[in-house]
Amino acid sequence: MQRRTFLAGSLTTLTIGALYPATAAGATDAGLAAVDEDFLAVLTKANQTQIPLVLSTLQNPSDSVRNVARKARRLVSGYVWGKSSYYHDASLLAPLQWLVEQLAARQHEDGLYDVGNLHSPPDSSFAIQDVCMIYGLLDADDQAATLPQRAILEKVLKKAGPALAGGGVHTPNHRWEISAALARTHHLFPDRRYAARIDDWLDEGIDATPDGIYSERSSTYASEVTNHCLVTVAWLRDKPELLEYVERNLDATLYFIEPNGEVDTVASRRQDQNRIREVWWYLTQFRELALHTGDGRFSTVAKSIEQRGTGELGDFLAEVLERPEIAAVLPAAQPAPTDFVQHFPSQASARIRHGARTASVFGGTDFHDIPVISSGLSTNPTFFKLRNGAAILDSVRLSPVFFSTGHFRADGMRRVGPNTYKLSQEVKVPYHLPLPKRYRRSDGLYALTLDGRFYASMDFPHRPKQYRTLRTDVTIVELGNGWDLSFEFDGDETSYAIELCFRTGGTLAGVDALDASGNYQLSSGTGSYTVGSDRISFGPGNGATRVGMDPGERYTYLGGSLTPDGQRVYLTGRTPGRQVLQLRTS
């Protein structure tokens, strides 16, 4: 292995690799750059905190092979790093031996692992990337005491490589995860099959839109995985052109970062579309690209992650020991964007921020093109989010009582003015008339077909129909002191509920408790949600009638739920007509 590590301890300068211009990090001499000692100190301390936790939960039967590999990576990082209090600590060797033996024991004869999915090349690749790093660090450290562990790891890698080179994937980012694992394995144990498979995957093209969004639209899962993998392939396979995709994605990510370090995920097609995730996952990516491009905004984000100190920052120590150029002093910081209106056409969304006040407008679910609930589709019914400092309105949703068709999901988003957005949906529900005579069967056994909400043996496509229709337009306008959301309904008379879900931890006022499960109603006047000195007021209420949020027959048939976590306030009304929801931050 090319020994680019600085395992024994800190250096004053380090050699910058081919991906980085000598001037990118404030080089002191040609090809040399100063080391960011503060950055190393953060990672060292974080790793030293992780190691006791690894030892205390070493033989956890519920650990996946990915968890086993990550535990080994944490131990090895401390063992080989000269400035760690665990440097060459012999007490780590027996636990490390147990972990690497697990990596060998759990490996199938075909070289793959079960990680939820059986004999899974992509899931195995996540673990194999860690195994490659572990082996590489131990090899560079070159201690006789770790020869037994290295021998086992070498067998694991040589067994896994052909399986990864011949295996398949499920999702777009899996292609890049396998490619990165193969690039690492090829770097340690060259095999032309590995290089050829990487080129096959890359030849399909990178699934990135012009505005920097990968096809899975996941700000904190697919993006941070894809970026990391593309960077790995770029430096190991000499393909610096891949960094252009990473740069575009990180530029887009700047606009999804909340003031507290969370990342907006409302448009995601993956499991994070209803979860809270933080930007710490991106630490080394922002450092990499800051050094590569000289972009001081990326420096600012990287330093903010260090200063915030949340997340498993110790996991990055292995990457830095492997590639010390990541630890170079960053380009001079430039302000990351904090006052903007940014439109993302590829996912029909907008992000707006003015200091501590942020908002998201979203109309890009996949539901109108593919009307099913499935992994890999964007189905989140949240269409607006608002933050005023620590006062967080995690979602605004709307659900009409209309044949159990579920939540309002906009069919796109239009920016109709500098501060105005329009979301629309038209729902048509059929009543089916008798089949024309030419389609009738004497045995009554008709095709099982989709009505739009459910299936039945009714040959729905060939039946004439009568429709009931409900059209909903939501106009969202930013004002100097907040937002107005205008709801206009046209069509059949029915009821609806608007749901405001606030982050748990604040104080609600002006609302009536509906039950003990965090549900409230604003019947009249104005309510408020307060955290410390930060406040969001909302209203006016539009009546005391209670209307349940109907997630739709696709959910209720099997007892599914779309109830978000938090403190939920409901406003209700009747269609047709118009209602204005005023959200104020001052």
Automatic annotation (TrEMBL):
It comes from the Bacteria. Keywords: Signal. Residues 1-24 form the signal peptide. InterPro entries: Chondroitin_lyas (IPR008929). This is Heparinase II/III-like protein. It comes from Kribbella antiqua.
